[in-house]
Amino acid sequence: MSNCSETLERLYEYIDRELSNEEQAEVQRHLDDCPPCRDRFKFEENVLRQVRRCCRDVSAPPSLVEKVRRICNQ
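Request: output the structure for the sequence above.
Response:
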C-alpha cells in the first residue's frame, strides 16, 4: 500500500495516466482512503484543467514546432 509521500510523488503520472494499471489502482486506493491526498489530487487536477482551458488557443511558434519534430525524429 502507498503512503502519502509515495502517492504524491506519483500524482502527476496518475493524472496523466502514465502509470501501469496496478500502480493506477494503488494510487486510487490511497486517494479513496486519504482525504488530504484526495484534496491535493483535486487541486492539482483543477490547476491542469484550467491551464488546458486557458492555453487552448495558444500555439507554439512554427520554429519551435520544427525543432521539436527534428529532435523527436533523431
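The chain has a mean pLDDT of 91.
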